[in-house]
């Protein structure tokens, strides 16, 4: 087996230059370029984004080749594949950043693997069009993962590469802090996680007509919340569940039950008459379809809100329930009729997040993270208090057998958590800072200065997360068909 050759400057390709790449990847690469660690050889995006991408790239001072393509979905056109492979070989490219529409994650990842390149890819690993209504596609999310993992495994027999998934909470100091608390009590008591509740709300108010037209974090392609930020929450369910390290008490099977609210239900919650009552006659100027028309158009659109219970079982006995509630349609700060240009961090979007994790009678950990502001570029200090941009409080309740004379409750804020961080964050979003660290970790590996065994989010460790995501869609489809909607699957063992 050969190993990646150490070099002073990693050469990479950025595939997809949308809102996330502009806000995270390009600034991170710019910093790394200034340090002489990376060369951005090529940017790829679709033709309709050409003017926008060229403008952003020029403003940031990158001088790189750019290709703009006609969209495709299920496979890379042969001519493009050959052209891209030739470019990667001639330029001695080391790796790719994949930040495209999720529907083409798998085809670009497959191309990169066949060319023996390392990968850093946005979550989710894959999703599929109409996954909310097509059972084959719901199961196909897991099939995609297994195909990519098997191909990656074959590549490793010839050359060491990495395949990283940018599931950013794995790198977040607050979530790592909680994992360590769970590990500590697992070691002291041999008690696993026995119950967990997770809640995440994007605080995004998307108007009915926008549900049809918007292509960023879309519903119109037949997938929604579970394929957007939902993947990160599923991933933390898995990470927290395994954090105590009590291997003998980990589940061997799972059962998943889910329920979705889709756009057809959203339209019934708040009607066009209600919008006119709130915004006045101006609403009719932005309304493109009536509620009756939207009901027909949106029947199989992706999920806006979802709830699910994942039952962990061992030897066919339930040993833990993991409850997850994911919401797009929640408290928001939008007060205007027409959407803003920034749909990633703007447009009134406000994040609320909560976890409650029980470790039997020994420990309860609660994470509370609630923003009250939708403007994240103009920060003053850490803003770690309730409602601040970096609000992240951890409540830890411990049995007196463990806490002794220290009392049963300790509360940690973001400033406490960051006190042990080598690089303290004081005036930026912590979630964005950790995403920059993901890029640096990837580039360090490509440069030969980082070890593969120390990487935090390799594809090998994402099977259970993908199983949960696939199962959540699978269960919803069965429920819509009035069938038995309990989806039974192995825990962490791929299908043969």
From TrEMBL:
The keyword Glycoprotein is assigned to this record: no
Top-level taxon of origin: Bacteria
Keywords: Oxidoreductase
InterPro entries reported for this sequence: NAD(P)-bd_dom_sf
Keyword Ribosomal protein applies: no
Annotated family: Belongs to the Gfo/Idh/MocA family.
PANTHER family: BINDING ROSSMANN FOLD OXIDOREDUCTASE, PUTATIVE (AFU_ORTHOLOGUE AFUA_2G10240)-RELATED (PTHR42840:SF3), NAD(P)-BINDING ROSSMANN-FOLD SUPERFAMILY PROTEIN-RELATED (PTHR42840)
Listed name of the protein: Gfo/Idh/MocA-like oxidoreductase N-terminal domain-containing protein
Source organism per UniProt: Methylomonas rivi
Lineage: Bacteria, Pseudomonadati, Pseudomonadota, Gammaproteobacteria, Methylococcales
């Amino acid at each position: 087996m050969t190993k990646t050759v150490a070099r002073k400057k990693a050469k990479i390709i950025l595939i997809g230059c949308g809102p996330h790449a502009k806000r995270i990847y390009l600034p991170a690469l710019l910093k790394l370029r200034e340090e002489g660690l990376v060369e951005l050889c090529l940017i790829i995006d679709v033709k309709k984004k050409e003017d926008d991408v060229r403008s952003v790239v020029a403003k940031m001072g990158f001088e790189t080749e750019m290709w703009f393509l006609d969209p495709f979905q299920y496979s890379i056109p042969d001519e493009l594949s050959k052209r891209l492979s030739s470019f990667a070989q001639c330029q001695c490219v080391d790796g790719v950043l994949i930040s495209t529409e999720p529907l083409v994650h798998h085809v670009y990842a497959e191309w990169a693997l066949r060319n023996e390149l390392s990968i850093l890819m946005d979550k989710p690993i894959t999703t599929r069009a109409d996954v909310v209504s097509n059972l084959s596609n719901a199961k196909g999310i897991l099939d995609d993962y297994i195909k990519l993992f098997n191909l990656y495994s074959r590549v490793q027999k010839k050359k060491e590469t990495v395949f990283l998934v940018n599931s950013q909470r794995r790198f977040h100091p607050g979530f790592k802090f909680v994992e360590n608390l769970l590990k500590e009590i697992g070691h002291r008591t041999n008690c696993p996680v026995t119950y967990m509740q997770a809640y995440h709300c994007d605080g995004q108010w998307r108007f009915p007509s926008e549900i049809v037209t918007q292509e960023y974090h879309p519903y119109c392609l037949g997938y929604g919340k579970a394929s957007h930020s939902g993947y990160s929450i599923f991933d933390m369910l898995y990470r927290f569940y395994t954090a105590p390290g009590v291997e003998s008490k980990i589940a061997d099977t799972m059962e998943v039950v889910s329920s979705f609210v889709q756009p057809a239900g959203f339209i019934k919650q708040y009607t066009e008459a209600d919008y006119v009552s709130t915004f006045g006659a101006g609403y009719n100027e932005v309304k493109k379809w009536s509620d009756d028309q939207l009901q027909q158009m949106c029947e199989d659109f992706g999920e806006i809100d979802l709830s699910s219970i994942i039952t962990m079982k061992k030897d066919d006995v339930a040993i833990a329930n993991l409850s997850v509630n994911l919401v797009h349609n929640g408290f928001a700060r939008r007060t205007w009729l027409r959407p803003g240009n920034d749909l990633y961090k703007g447009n009134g979007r406000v994040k609320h997040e909560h976890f409650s994790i029980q470790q039997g009678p020994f420990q309860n950990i609660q994470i509370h993270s609630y923003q009250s502001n939708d403007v994240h570029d103009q920060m003053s200090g850490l803003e770690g208090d309730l409602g601040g941009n970096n609000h992240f409080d951890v409540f830890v309740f411990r049995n007196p057998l463990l806490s002794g004379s220290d009392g049963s409750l300790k509360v940690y804020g973001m400033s406490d958590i960051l006190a042990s961080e080598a690089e303290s964050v004081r005036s930026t979003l912590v979630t964005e800072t950790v995403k920059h660290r993901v890029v640096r970790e990837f580039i360090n590996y490509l440069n030969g200065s980082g070890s593969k065994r120390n990487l935090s989010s390799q594809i090998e460790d994402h099977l259970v997360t993908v199983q949960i995501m696939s199962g959540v869609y699978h269960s919803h489809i069965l429920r819509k068909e009035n069938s038995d909607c309990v989806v039974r699957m192995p825990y962490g063992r791929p299908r043969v």
